[in-house]
Amino acid sequence: MSFTRHFHRGRDLARTAGDHAADVFAPLTVIGRGLRRHADWTKARWAATPKERRGPTLLVGAAVTIGVFLLPHGPLMALVALVASAAWAGRGPKSEPEPEADLADTKLTALYAALTPYLGGIDEPFALYRLDGEWRAAFSGWEFDPDGRLTALEISYPAYFTDTEPAARARIEQVVQGKAGRSREYRFDWDEEINRLRVSALAPLPADIVAQRFVTAPGEIVLGFTDGAGSNRTIPVEQGGATEQQPPVVWRVGPRSAEPHLLALGAAGYGTSTLLRSIALQALPHGDLVVVDGASTGEHACLVNRPGVYTVETSLHGALAALDWVAKETERRLIALNAARHHGVAAPADVTRPLWILLDHLTELSELAHAEGRTDPQELLEVPLRHGRAARVTVVFVDDLEARHRIAATVHACTRARVVLGPITSESGSAGLGVPLDIAPAAHTPPGRGYARIGTAAPVRVQVPVTVDPLDEEAPQALREAVVALLPHRDTRTEEAPSAGAEVTGAEAAGTEPDRAEVRLTKDHAPAQPGMA
């Protein structure tokens, strides 16, 4: 007989023996299951018995046990009764595990209870929100993700709730976000006509888009990227080694722009200087720059000695001289443009080429000017801000969120494009953007994350492209090279040294006319004072 036949015969014998053993031990299995259920019942009863009644219960139990043992054939009868009871209790199948509690019932009950003090009626027996109320009457259309987190919910609220007051709205939004989880952003859509609040969790924005040439028209600046609801277009971007379509936040500048100037506020370390570098890299191919670094941190030293960059100032004296020149240059451009229109000829190229004024933490220089009794640099911005759109002059004012009270009223009034970066509150968000924010920020905000508002449009989320300082040795090499590739010409600190004796001015490298304003840079990169043409 072959080994295979022996194996199959042995397997059949083992299977038959197992079936017979299961039949033989089936009664014991039933009795054992019943005893286990009796033990579980006893434990549950003992746990439910109050402590003051446990002593008398033990005494009664001991008396019954002694009485059974004293009866003739008592122990035998007790054993037979126990076995019969166990066989009866264990005759059913194994108990199924208890179903898990409904996720919606657990979480939405807690949210309903949290909203009751704010939306509940006073002495109203049939109020929508009350202590003994049912959450299903107030909530509808709820959705949860696979991790059990709330992603969408529609909340009904009573008609007497003051849904037109920002403070009342903020209070409800804070409660909802606290119960739904603060790790994500939530959009709150208040429908005042039918007293409904729609809550939706927002997916995180991509934070791995680095500096690159974006597919935009001249005069369009990509401030960052948002979600599909915040933009009506997409552009191709290099992301993670592949080309993806992402919706951008586009700021349009120029003589026909309704928002010619930008104000960006943010917390320290959350990307305001990164935003300014990103704007500078996009503006350089089509315009000229004047940069003032009021914090003197060297964040914009990579722009020094670049074609199209008139000057990069870090001192109060240099900032005052540069901004005074900007004011006079704005007036000169206006005069030249008006003369060209009067004579019906084309305007000269030196007055139609865009001029960008990039200001980083200028309020620090304003405080220094006040201490020294000198002119406030912000006063010199009045002419560029008020007449910059006609003169092709664009002002980008970047500062700390806590310094918004030190920013001049003219700057606030003329900067209709707003960006706020970093963690914010409802108060700081409204002050920075000009309107209440209908999005609840997440508890942890990555660098470059914030909100943007262009003109009178609704605020949208924004993630600034990663634009590191190429002179920062701690930044990843790949990110530094991406920024260097966008700079207009070689620089001795980041690339190979240029040929000896070659002195390049901003106007000459840009290929402009000789009569344009020039700012020559010394060998140690200290900018000279800008002069008039």
Tell me briefly what this model is.
The chain has 533 residues and is of the alpha/beta class. The chain has helices at 3-48, 51-70, 74-89, 103-119, 166-180, 272-283, 316-343, 349-352, 362-372, 382-391, 409-414, 426-433, 477-486, 506-509; strands at residues 139-144, 150-156, 185-191, 196-202, 220-225, 235-239, 242-246, 248-252, 262-266, 288-293, 309-313, 355-360, 393-400, 417-421, 439-440, 449-454, 460-463.
Structure description:
It is a single chain. Among the domains are: 104-199, 2-Layer Sandwich (Threonyl-tRNA Synthetase, Chain A, domain 2), CATH 3.30.980; 220-486, Rossmann fold (3-Layer(aba) Sandwich), CATH 3.40.50. An eight-stranded mixed sheet has the order 11-10-12-13-9-14-16-17, sandwiched between helices. The chain has a five-stranded antiparallel sheet with strand order 1-2-4-3-15. The chain has helices spanning 3-48, 51-70, 74-89, 103-119, 166-180, 272-283, 316-343, 349-352, 362-372, 382-391, 409-414, 426-433, 477-486, 506-509; strands at 139-144, 150-156, 185-191, 196-202, 220-225, 235-239, 242-246, 248-252, 262-266, 288-293, 309-313, 355-360, 393-400, 417-421, 439-440, 449-454, 460-463. With 533 residues, it is α/β, with parallel strands linked by helices. The protein has 14 helices and 17 strands. InterPro entries: P-loop_NTPase.
